[in-house]
Amino acid sequence: MGSSCENSAFFPTHNPWDLNRVPGGSSGGAAASVAADETIVALGSDTGGSIRQPASLCGVVGLKPTYGRVSRYGLVAFASSLDQIGPVGKDVMDCAITLNAIAGYDSRDSTSLNLPSTDFTAGLTGDIKGVRIGIPREYFVEGMEPGVRSAVETAIKELEGLGASVEPVSLPTTEYALACYYIIAPSECSANLARYDGVKFGYSYQDTPDMWKAMETTRQLGFGPEVKRRIMLGTYALSAGYYDAYYLKAQQVRTLIRQDFDRVFEQVDALVTPTSPVVAFPLGEKMADPLQMYLIDVCTLPINIAGLPAMSVPCGFSEGLPVGMQLIGPHLSEERLLNMAYAYEQATEWHKARPGI
User: Fold this and answer.
1) pLDDT at position 292, please?
2) Catalytic annotation present for 187
3) 8 Å CB contact between 231 and 195
4) 50 an active-site residue?
5) Residue 38 falls within a domain, yes or no?
6) 176 phi and psi angles, rounded to 5 deg
7) Cα torsion for 287, 246, 83, 224, to the nearest 10°?
8) Domain tally for the chain?
9) How do residues 258-313 score in pLDDT, each as one tens digit?
């Protein structure tokens, strides 16, 4: 878990663009392996930005589908109402082909949507004339690196030049999304990982004749500091006397955030924002300050809270490191988002850049 991929049970993952920097997280391994040409595509799990944020920091394409579009069966659950599986690829076509393979109804996932099959590659025409794009001012946050802002603003002008119309919009509840997420996600994490015992899957400590000691030690050694932190936060939020004050209130705020998006999507077809307010930062820089680490996901968290589809595409560089542009759409608008990203990709060269390793 976490925004830097430094909390792995094995070792930190390094960013192929600069081996002294993080690749983003928590699916940083997926993004780094694609960026380093170790694989063509990879799968990530996105709970609060864990596909899009590492895709941005590693200069690749990452897509978080609509909640329920892809089965979560087989995923070790973090936060069941937020988790979604999606593809990471070198370009938009790779992601569309992969989504064709993984999207669809699965009776083993109770949240899986039963929808007609879709060929996501068929809609990649590159024509976005008339598409209405909203630019939410709340996503251009204070503290955003100037190079990130500049790259994304230039990318927006490129979309406008391709025939899209651009207008400012507002999502006023965005400022509450971070607090809302860090109550809901740890609470669901606490409930889900209470089932983790080292018996059915994952790490298992067995150097003891006592099954109870084995289970206790498995959980002690199998969870790193960040996972333990989130379990404890969630257990506290769900405890007697605090449930209404924290978890219930967060769910009410979640409804307001969803309503914000519904209202805006009556005006526009899609939203464009930065994926991350910063480029890849040095390994170890934020490990001692969890709050600063959590703030890295400020542009991606609200999308999971609302269950919307979103994707990150490379749109430039800042200080020699990749910058990602985030495209957000209403529920089940993956075809439109993929085509917007494809149109931008065909008009630019950023997706062709490769790290010198």
Assistant:
1) 84
2) no
3) no
4) yes
5) yes
6) -95, -5
7) 30
8) 1
9) 999 999 999 999 999 999 999 999 999 998 888 888 889 999 999 999 999 999 99
For 252-357, where are the E strands, in sequence order? 270-274, 310-318, 321-328
The two most distant CA atoms of the chain are separated, in Å, by 69
State in Å, rounded, how far the first CA of the chain is from the last one: 27
Cβ-based neighbours of 157, under 8 Å, separated by 6 or more: none
Contact by Cβ (8 Å): 312, 55: yes
pLDDT in tens, 168-192: 999 999 999 999 999 999 999 999 9
Cβ atoms of 181 and 257 closer than 8 Å: no
258 in any annotated domain: no
CA distance 24 to 33: 12
In the sheet that holds 132-136, the strands lie side by side as 41-46, 84-89, 61-64, 310-318, 321-328, 270-274, 132-136, 165-169
Domain that holds residue 63: 28-171+270-352
CB proximity list for 162: less than 8 A, separation 6 or greater: 128, 129, 343, 344, 347
Instruction: Look up the CATH number of the domain holding residue 320.
Output: 3.90.1300.10
| Predicted pLDDT at 195 | 85
Distance CA 273, CA 153 (A): 9
Query: Among 3, 26, 45, 56, which one carries the catalytic annotation?
Result: 26
Q: Helix, strand or coil for residue 275?
A: coil
Q: Say which residues have a Cβ less than 8 Å from residue 59's Cβ, sequence separation at least 6.
A: 17, 35, 314, 322, 324, 350, 351, 353, 355
Beta-carbon contacts of residue 217 (< 8 Å; ≥ 6 apart): 205, 208
Q: Which of 4, 33, 50, 56 is catalytic?
A: 50
Which residues on neighbouring strands pair with residue 357, listed in sequence order?
none
Q: Is residue 198 a part of any domain in this protein?
A: no
Reported as type and span, the H/E element at residue 41 is strand 41-46
Pairing of strands 41-46, 321-328: unpaired
Residues in the chain with pLDDT values less than 50: none
**Who's near 328: CB < 8 A, 6+ residues apart?**
270, 271, 272, 273, 303, 308, 309, 310, 337
Contact 65, 23 (CB under 8 A): no
Residue 265 covered by a domain:
no
